[in-house]
Structure to design on (138 residues):
């Protein structure tokens, strides 16, 4: 009898879901999972249709997620053979998870995320403890 593989479980941090729109947070988890697969030796260069199918989103939404993740310093997109491979920066991702896992109220967390990443277009690594403290106090 062929042994079944144990399904991969990837943590979907509650703070990510509360700080970002659901497609953005799902995109982040998906990209982190692709990074884990790449580190195991798998080829992660896939057609766009496959990425869209995995995420259940349209191309426009996917491209908006890519643009935002690149701007935040989370993602590098490399063209390969008419497709793209996506390289997720786990150091930046872990910093983001730490930021969104603070003792936030969900309203403050959403306001902070909007202020930092939409209005000011900040890179995750540029967020200071003072930036966070300002929003935690208000």
């Amino acid at each position: 009898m062929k042994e079944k593989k144990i399904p991969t479980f990837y943590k979907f941090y509650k703070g990510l879901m509360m700080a970002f729109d659901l497609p953005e947070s799902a995109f982040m988890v998906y990209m982190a999972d692709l990074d884990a697969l790449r580190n195991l030796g798998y080829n992660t260069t896939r057609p766009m249709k496959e990425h869209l199918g995995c995420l259940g989103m349209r191309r426009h939404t996917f491209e908006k997620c890519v643009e935002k993740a690149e701007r935040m310093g989370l993602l590098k997109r490399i063209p390969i053979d008419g497709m793209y491979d996506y390289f997720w920066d786990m150091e930046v991702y872990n910093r983001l998870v730490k930021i969104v896992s603070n003792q936030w109220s969900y309203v403050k967390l959403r306001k902070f995320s909007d202020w930092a990443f939409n209005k000011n277009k900040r890179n995750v690594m540029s967020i200071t403890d003072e930036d966070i403290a300002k929003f935690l106090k208000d």
The longest strand covers residues 75-80. The helical segments are 14-19, 22-39, 48-55, 59-71, 90-100, 106-119, 129-137.
